[in-house]
Design goal:
294 residues; mainly alpha; 434 Repressor (Amino-terminal Domain); 17 helices; Transcription_activator_Rgg_C; Cro/C1-type_HTH
């Protein structure tokens, strides 16, 4: 992470919580939580000078922000272009524009060669992973690339959206144990991710994909556990048709896997009727075929 952004992010958090420089620094008459001078905090916020991690931790405590939340905001501050590129990848995938995905992969690979910035390496691998998954031309993911992604994900203390997207694209290439362990680690941090709605939604979609991964591999224990996690993640009194619909689809697939065909058929028929009402007859037909093809 670029430490020159740390001060800017701290200022945004401080101002959002309506703390003055003096209050954040503990630099006022009668203070019992003095960390450093308000002048030093101002210089830190403007990127003029650095301060120690110990002092940053104290400043965060003064404004009521945990260090993990601070790191999350720093990562989000640094990732706008990365997120935009990932969104492009999603659109290209929906439209099956493999030539566009290859074009962007080559641009990112070239950016990495010129700058040696690892963020371009990870982004290039995300695009490449999809090309390899679709058997496009001669693209393939090598063992050293899988190891590099695994080591990187393990080393990052707080996953941002970029790490979640990278993991999502590499699910087909990681070991079953890695997929399950990473998924559970993220689920165990639900309370943290609930603070950031856009991040929580990426976590929900990731757990959905992991549950489907284990269903396709007929790994009942792992699939069942992640299905429960998935259900808990979307539990909310707020109407959320998209996530509920997606969950029912995964639940239907799970029921088919464990031999409960009649229960699965009821779920898929309900989903098919819903799609018909929404004028998506082709999707409805595809869903009905899931049961008949089993």
């Amino acid at each position: 992470m670029n430490q020159s952004n740390w001060g800017y992010v701290f200022r945004e958090l401080r101002e959002a919580k309506n703390f003055s420089l003096s209050k954040a620094a503990g630099d006022y008459q009668g203070s019992t939580n003095y960390i450093t001078s308000k002048v030093q905090v101002s210089r830190f916020e403007r990127g003029i000078s650095d301060i120690t991690l110990t002092k940053i931790s104290g400043l965060l405590e003064n404004i009521g922000v945990s260090f993990e939340e601070y790191l999350y905001h720093i990562r989000s501050y640094e990732q706008p272009r990365e997120i935009s590129l990932v969104e492009h990848l999603g659109r290209f995938q929906e439209l099956n524009q493999l030539d566009k995905i290859e074009e962007q992969h080559l641009i990112l690979a070239n950016d990495y060669q010129k700058t040696k910035q690892r963020k371009f390496y990870w982004l290039a691998l995300e695009f490449k992973a999809y090309l390899a998954l679709k058997n496009f031309k001669d693209y393939e993911i090598k063992a050293e690339e899988i190891n590099a992604v695994s080591d990187y994900l393990f080393s990052v203390l707080e996953w941002g959206e970029s790490e979640i997207f990278l993991f999502g694209e590499f699910i087909p290439f990681l070991s079953e144990k890695q997929v399950f362990d990473y998924a559970k680690e993220v689920v165990n941090r639900t309370e943290f991710y609930r603070q950031f709605p856009q991040h929580k939604q990426q976590v929900v979609l990731m757990i959905r994909d992991c549950a489907l991964y284990f269903i396709d591999k007929t790994m009942k224990e792992e699939a069942n556990e992640l299905l429960k996690d998935y259900k808990n993640l979307i539990a909310s009194p707020i109407v959320d048709v998209y996530n509920r619909k997606e969950y029912k689809f995964v639940e239907g697939k799970y029921l088919l896997m464990v031999g409960k065909k009649q229960e699965a058929q009821q779920i898929f028929e309900f989903l098919a009727q819903m799609y018909e009402l929404l004028d998506y007859p082709e999707t409805a037909e595809m869903i009905r075929k899931i049961v008949t093809n089993k």
